[in-house]
Amino acid sequence: MKPFVVIATILLTIAIIGIAMVAFKESKGQAAITTYTLSDQEKPLVRVVKNSVDFGDMNVSDEKTAEFILENIGNKPLELYGVTSSCGCTFGEIEINKIKSPRFAMHAKSDWSGVIQQGNTATVKVTYIPSIMPVKGDVTRMVYVKTNDPKNQELTFSVKANVK
Prior knowledge:
By secondary structure, this protein is of the alpha+beta class. It folds into 2 domains: 1-30; 46-163, Immunoglobulin-like (Sandwich). Helices cover 15% and strands 42% of the residues. The chain has 1 helix and 10 strands, in the order αββββββββββ. It has one helix at 3-27; strands spanning 46-48, 52-58, 64-72, 78-85, 90-96, 99-100, 113-116, 121-128, 137-147, 154-163. The strands form 2 sheets. The protein has a 5-stranded antiparallel β-sheet, with no helix packed on it. Strands 2-10-9-4-7 form a 5-stranded mixed β-sheet, with no helix packed on it.
C-alpha cells in the first residue's frame, strides 16, 4: 500500500472514533427533570430577590464573587440544572443545604441537577475572574440556571464591573 493510503486510513479511523466518543458523551444525559405547566395547581415557584450585582472598579488581577438567593415558594420541589455562563472568565456554583455543585463555566455540559424543597433556599454564586479573558472598561457577565418552574424556566444572574 502506498504511504498516503495508510496515513489517510489512520486519520479517517481516528476521526470516526473521535466522533463516536463525542456522540456517546453527549447522549449521556441528566436524570429526568419533572416538568409542570402554568395551569398546574401544584408546581414549583422560584423567588429571586435580586439577580444582579455591580462590583464597581476592579483590577484585571482581582477575583470577585456575588451571591444570589433563590427560594422555592411553590408547593412542589424546584429543580435546578443546565448551569452555564456567558464567558470562560465567569463561573457559577450552586449551594443547596450546604452541598455545593461543581463550578460551571461557559459551554459547561453536566448531568448535575439540584433540588430545592418547598420553603427552602439555595445560593447561586457568580465568580468573575477578569485575568482569564482580559478586557478593560465596563463589563457585564452572566450565569444562567435552568429550572422546572414553568413561569421561570431560565434564570439569569449578572455581575458588572469596571475593569482597570
